[in-house]
């Protein structure tokens, strides 16, 4: 299909005329300011609060560490091998489920 120069001029003229009209119509219909809004459910807010509180807790329980050090030093700290093995297996399967 060939488009002549006169046809192209007509298309451009129509486009330019409609472009001015569309801007005024567009500005009347849409507000000038846009705002994004995020609404979180109560459950999500509760989880976020719990994560914030958990991150503020100290990771090392010094009283527990001191108690274990004292038991090791006194020779009264005994480790049950079956409990250790059970915990290892439990953690391996927990990682696979996640």
Overview of the molecule:
The protein has 98 residues and is mainly α. 71% of the residues lie in helices and 0% in strands. It has helices at 5-29, 42-56, 62-74, 81-97. The longest helix is centred in the first third of the chain and has 25 residues, at 5-29. It is elongated. The two termini are 61 Å apart.
Question: What brief labels describe this structure?
Answer:
mainly alpha, 98 residues, 2 domains, 4 helices
Query: How many domains make up the coordinates?
Result: 2
Count of discrete alpha- or pi-helical segments spanning 4 or more residues: 4
Helix content: over 70%
What does the largest sheet look like? none
Q: Count the strands?
A: 0
Low-confidence stretches: none
Secondary-structure-derived class: mainly alpha
**Beta-strand residue percentage:** under 5%
Q: Give the N-to-C terminal Cα separation.
A: 61 Å
Q: What is the residue-averaged pLDDT? A: 79
What order do the helices and strands follow? HHHH
Global shape? elongated
Whole-number radius of gyration?
35 Å
């Amino acid at each position: 299909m060939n488009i002549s120069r006169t046809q192209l001029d007509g298309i451009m003229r129509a486009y330019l005329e409609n472009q001015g009209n569309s801007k005024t119509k567009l500005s009347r219909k849409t507000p000038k300011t846009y705002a994004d809004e995020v609404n979180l459910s109560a459950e999500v807010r509760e989880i976020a609060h719990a994560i914030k509180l958990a991150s503020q807790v100290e990771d090392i329980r010094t009283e527990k560490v001191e108690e274990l050090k004292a038991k090791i030093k006194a020779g009264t700290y005994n480790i049950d091998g079956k409990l250790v093995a059970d915990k290892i297996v439990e953690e391996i399967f927990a990682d696979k489920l996640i």
